[in-house]
Specification:
This protein has 374 residues and is α+β, with helices and mostly antiparallel strands. It contains 17 helices and eleven strands. The protein has a seven-stranded mixed β-sheet, sandwiched between helices. α5 packs across α15, α9 packs parallel to α14 and α13 runs antiparallel to α15.
Length: 374
């Protein structure tokens, strides 16, 4: 049965951190009448047939004929309401992926969307668009940075409508990731192998060795203890974890060294690691000084950070649960890998600030954060 094969394909990519971290990525299968799409916030590695939402494709198609308000909040509420109304009977308790419309318009039965650090080294780089053209020679679409959901789906739809000849099965999304689509699940795997191998021919020399990413996950007891005291650090949630590796050590040497990871590369980085890490410049002769410096910085920032980087020391993931802290650190390390790969394509290119603000205030991503970090 197709949905069982879709679940297996989802687990295949979801279990491989070269492609997917945390709740990132989404998958789908469609026939003429129904789209089967991964539920929002569900990790690909855990997908079973019951985790997909059955969507009425005719109802989804009608969304394109509607005119939505110009204001982002009103537009997104309207689109979400219509998308939820497109669920098949019996699916009312499920919430479809935010990229449902995009999956539906792609003229292929199978679609797998992932966020590999290697690929995002291309999509999050200054010269990424030109490099994609050079490497894939007209066999892939490049979509400029766009807010996820309806706006991104519209951008892809317009690009596909403008295509002459056969539509490409590979779509690179600036500051987001990649879609691979095909009428064969096996061909999806071959397509991804080609994508990764092709980009690696240019980016391999820019990537640090695997040794640089063997993390010292653990605790600096005095600092962790202070960070977890809610009465002192209530703004960050009361839970903390620590990571340091060779690459992190280089990034936290000073503020200039930290620049390549100082803002957000993709929506997933915002969801799990925040849009701006808190960098603390301080001497490290006592945990008290570290805590004092962190508290001082927290009093100056309006949005609680999910990552606190301490000069010369390492990186703390902070939040309301151990899972949230761990995911923050995982996505920070992923951002470090992306930053390293961008060196092959002109250096880092962060998300535009207006799109960062959109993600920070989007109900859809707040929902995804809640269901994936508890």
């Amino acid at each position: 049965m197709a949905v069982e094969e879709l679940a297996a394909l989802s687990r295949y990519y979801g279990a491989n951190t070269d492609y997917v971290i945390a709740g990132g990525g989404n998958t789908s299968f469609k026939d003429q009448d129904t789209l089967y799409i991964k539920g929002s916030g569900m990790a690909l590695k855990d997908c079973a047939p019951e985790h997909f939402v059955r969507m009425d494709r005719r109802a989804l198609a009608r969304i394109w004929a509607k005119t939505y308000p110009a204001l982002p909040d009103e537009r997104e509420r309207g689109v979400l309401e219509d998308m939820m109304a497109a669920r098949r009977k019996g699916e009312e308790k499920k919430r479809p992926s935010v990229e449902t419309l995009l999956h539906d318009i792609l003229p292929f039965n199978w679609v797998v969307h992932t966020h590999p650090a290697l690929v995002n080294g291309l999509t999050c780089a200054q010269d990424g668009e030109q490099a994609a053209r050079d490497l894939f020679a007209g066999t892939a679409l490049w979509i400029p940075a766009a807010n996820p959901g309806y706006i991104l789906s519209r951008a892809v739809k317009d690009a596909l409508d403008a295509c002459t000849g056969n539509p490409p099965g590979v779509i690179f999304l600036q500051n987001h990731g990649v879609f691979a689509a095909s009428d064969s699940a096996d061909h999806i795997k071959a397509c991804y192998q080609h994508i990764m191998r092709t980009i690696n021919t240019k980016a391999a020399a820019a990537a640090p060795s695997l040794e640089d990413y063997v993390s010292e996950w653990g605790f600096s007891p005095a600092v962790i203890s202070a960070l977890e005291k809610k009465e002192k650090m209530e703004k960050i949630g009361g839970c903390a974890a620590f990571a340091r590796n060779r690459e992190i050590a280089g990034l936290v040497r000073d503020r200039a060294s930290f620049y390549p990871v100082s803002s957000a590369f993709t929506p997933d980085h915002i969801v799990y690691a925040g849009s701006e890490a808190l960098f603390v410049e301080t001497s490290l002769d006592s945990p008290e000084k570290v805590i004092s410096a962190i508290q001082s910085r927290l009093s100056q920032t309006p949005r609680p950070p999910k990552i606190i980087a301490v000069q010369g020391m390492g990186v703390f993931g902070v939040g309301a649960s151990k899972k949230a802290c761990g995911l923050g650190l995982e996505l920070f390390i992923d951002a470090a890998k992306v930053a390293a790969y961008t060196k092959a394509f002109g250096g880092p290119r962060f998300m535009p600030q207006d799109q960062i603000d959109f993600i920070n205030n989007w109900e859809v991503e707040r929902y995804r954060t809640r269901v994936s970090t508890v």
